[in-house]
Amino acid sequence: MRLRILLPMILMVSVGRGDWPQWRGEDGQGHAPGKGLAVEWGEKDGVEWRTELPGRGWSSPVVGGGLVWMTTAMETEAGDEEKAARLKTNTGDQPLTLLSQVELRALGVEAASGKVVHNLLLMTKRSPQWVHELNSYASPSPVLAGGRMYCHFGSLGTACVDTAKGEVAWVNEDKELEVMHENGPGSTPVLVDGLLYFANDGGMVTCVDASSGEEVFRERLGEPFSASPLAHDGRIYFPGREGTTYVLKAGRAFEKLAANRLEGRQFASFAVDGGALLVRTDKALYKIKN
Predict the structure, then answer these.
(1) Residues 209 and 84 in one domain
(2) For the CA atoms of the chain, what is the radius of gyration?
(3) What are the two backbone dihedrals, phi and then psi, of residue 158, each rounded to the nearest 5 degrees?
(4) What's the confidence (pLDDT) of residue 181?
(5) Positive or negative: CA dihedral 38, 44, 50, 52
């Protein structure tokens, strides 16, 4: 029953000023209210703080109560003999990650300082099912609601964290809910003023008319995309997988405003804390301000 009531909780999130309680923001539409987010930045330009993160995970950050939360996976790679034995049942040809063990954790970072204040073990899985090498074991983004954070890991299980206490409230690892994950969907579109913007892992950004479905423009930007775009103040932000974020002017004409490069790869979608962008790469979490 705990898992069955999760979706209504996502839809009924209530937030404080400046919070970003779930993937793609308060309303789930990928819109950042107000004005003032940075348009240009670099590894040493516009970065208020940079924090190294343990493990590997593509979950997007969520913000509440002055903390930035996300999930991560501490991976122990399987040996060659174990890999060969397990892959005998694999009929596909996709590049895969096989582990002998994975620890699934929740990280809490102070929004003001970048200090990691919580690193909570949620569950440990031995010989977890494989995932595509571009995916991670901590890709689904958490949800904040009513002083709790709900962390979902597909068929590996779901956990709830009491964010005020910094403690695990409950874990559900019901094996009857298991399915075989391998590959999955990536970027989600963002809708702005009747236009729908989306990107794909071929590096293509497309804009279509939301009322008719007719293409408005399509442009290749130079690297593949996995994260979802963010709309803010007449601009669309597209985080590229190889570390470059492309900023386009919203509208029917293609106009690139900036291309901002950071170290590492970007799989997580952006979050917003007040007037700052929260950008997660596979190397670190950045807080970026004008």
Answers:
(1) no
(2) 19
(3) -135, 145
(4) 54
(5) positive
Q: Return the bridge partners of 168, or none.
A: 161
For 35-65, b/e burial (b = at least 16 CB within 10 A) is: eebbeebeeeebbebbbebebbbbbbbbbbe
Strand 143-145 to 284-288 pairing? unpaired
Nearest one of 53, 20, 14 to 34, comparing CA atoms:
20
Q: Are strands 131-132 and 116-126 parallel, antiparallel or unpaired?
A: unpaired
Expressed as residue numbers, the domain containing 88 is: 6-31+54-177
Nearest residue to 280 (alpha-carbon basis) of 226, 231, 232: 226
Asked which of 125, 144, 177 is the last residue of a domain, the reply is 177
Sequence-distant (6+) residues with CB within 8 A of 215 are 206, 207, 208, 209
Q: In whole angstroms, give the CA distance from residue 141 to residue 156.
A: 14
* Structure-model confidence comparison of residues 185 and 182, the more confident one: 182
pTM (2 d.p.): 0.74
Instruction: Report the distance separating Cα 241 and Cα 280, nearest Å.
Output: 11
Give the number of other Cβ atoms within 10 Å of residue 230's Cβ. Answer: 24
Token pair of 252 as six digits: 């029917």
Q: Residue 6 CB: number of other CB atoms within 10 A? A: 15
Could you give the number of structural domains in the chain? 2
CB of 225 within 8 A of CB of 199? yes
Using the 3D structure, point to which of 156, 177, 198 is the last residue of a domain.
Answer: 177
90: domain CATH number is 2.40.10.480
Closest CA to 98 of 58, 133, 54, 139: 133
pLDDT single digits (tens) 98-156? 999 999 999 999 999 999 999 999 999 999 988 888 888 998 888 888 898 888 887 78
Residue 129: CB atoms within 10 A of its CB come to: 18
